């Protein structure tokens, strides 16, 4: 089993994230694009690469619930417990937006999309970076999500330098067949089947 926390390429990717880079990395089911959610230039670059509107909002991933603490302030204890409880499949929770997240992350919505990742490389990236990361599928809007590095390169490898991906990590996607399930934390309503 690889120790991603000490992998030189993953450490390099985390350093680049701290410098407003956009990287591609494997998640539970597909390759993702990620960046620092607090960096508007990085988020703008990521949205340009995907051709995605800022109004859609973006999913954030973290290694654990503690990394999401500022976004969870104000939740009732039972909701917080539900958020922290491991699920059988990757689950992105729609959490009430308490105003901590930038509007370019929330898309102006009254909820935030947060997931504690169980992909070892993605979790290591969050730990090395020191907080949550943007996580959106590695594909231009309307195209299938990349499931291997070759597809990521095919989508983003030929772009001009100002529009190109800054780094591609090693690794492979997890065992999940579908992208994460999306559920409302308070109501339990499933928005997207996983």
Describe the structure.
The chain has 194 residues and is of the alpha/beta class. It has one domain: DHBP synthase. 28% of the residues lie in helices and 19% in strands. The chain contains seven helices and ten strands. It has helices at 8-17, 40-50, 69-72, 77-84, 103-106, 120-129, 149-156; strands spanning 23-26, 31-34, 59-62, 91-96, 111-116, 133-134, 136-137, 167-168, 181-184, 190-192. The strands form two sheets. It has a six-stranded mixed β-sheet with strand order 6-3-5-4-9-10. The chain has a four-stranded mixed β-sheet with strand order 7-2-1-8, with helices on one face. A hairpin with a 5-residue loop joins strand 9 and strand 10 (190-192). Helix 1 (8-17) crosses helix 6. The protein is globular, with a radius of gyration of 16 Å. The protein starts with 7 loop residues before the first helix and ends with a strand.
Outline of the structure:
The protein is α/β, with parallel strands linked by helices.
On the 0-100 scale, what is the average pLDDT? 94
Secondary-structure element order, N to C:
HEEHEHHEHEHEEHEEE
Determine the CATH topology. Answer: DHBP synthase
User: Can you tell me the CATH superfamily?
Assistant: DHBP synthase
Query: Largest sheet, if any?
Result: 6 strands, mixed
Radius of gyration: 16 Å
CATH architecture grouping: Alpha-Beta Complex
Structural class of the helix and strand makeup? Answer: alpha/beta
Residue stretches low in confidence (pLDDT < 50, at least 5 long) are none
What is the β-strand count? 10
Strand content: 15-25%
Helix content: 25-40%
Strand order of the largest sheet: 6-3-5-4-9-10
Alpha plus pi helix count: 7
| Domain module tally | 1
- Name the shape in a single word: globular
CATH class: Alpha Beta
Distance between the termini: 26 Å
